[in-house]
Specification:
The protein is an alpha/beta fold. The chain has 2 domains: about 5-100, Translation factors (Elongation Factor Tu (Ef-tu), domain 3); about 115-235, 3-Layer(aba) Sandwich (Rossmann fold). Helices cover about 20% and strands about 35% of the residues. The chain has 5 helices and 11 strands. Strands 4-3-6-1-2-5 form a 6-stranded antiparallel beta sheet. A 5-stranded parallel beta sheet has the order 9-8-7-10-11, with helices on both faces. Helix 5 links the parallel strand 10 (about 205-210) and strand 11 (about 230-235). The two termini are about 30 Å apart. Its cofactor is FAD. Keywords: 2Fe-2S, Iron, Iron-sulfur, Metal-binding. One of its GO terms (molecular function) is oxidoreductase activity. It comes from Microbispora oryzae.
Length: about 240
Amino acid sequence: MRRLTWRAARLLETRDETPTARTLVFELPGWPGHLPGQHVDVRLTAEDGYSTQRSYSIASPSAGERIELTVERVPDGEVSPYLTEVLEPGDEVEMRGPVGGWFVWRAGASAPVVLVAGGSGIVPLMSMIRARRADGGGPPFRLIYSTRDPGRRFYAEELDRADPGLDVSYVYTREAPGGSARPAGRITADDLAAGGWPADRRPDCYVCGPTGFVEHAAELLIGLGHDPGRVKTERFGPTGG
């Protein structure tokens, strides 16, 4: 097994996604590349030697020595406020990765894909979407993206652009936009049936988000007849940010 080493990552640029989330573009000399769905560990070290680290999903496809992370600021967190509010282009942090080999999508796969995102769980799924596009196509993707309200959507402009082979539907849990046919509420089996692929197409399903959301969505997919072996999940919970 290849041993992961810490590397100096230099911030190149930033983009705000929502009022509380920011995309960070880093340069990592010697980066070996990654698969869509993998993540990295980020370590911060203070002048007094105290260090702390968190794991963040990669949002970009593999592209040389650059990677993108989209970080949601956690109130009173140790790492996310620094990354989203303090770190500036030219600054460095330490990174280790890529990490993970099960919750990944590989170019060349032929099965259609269902992506189910809860909140910032869209990040690794966006890496899959971008990798498919960079590969020049591939199997059709369908994304069901659950978020509190329209203002909390990550990658809103990119997902709103026409993308052959990608269908996107939204589930708003707290506040739906005016004129929406679906009232705000928790994701349901009807949402997954309408926005995803039927089970008889034998799609690969990827579900990412908070633990409660992931467990609920995975149960709904299996209840709709999807093969449990094709339902891959990645969950996150409170970590202190």
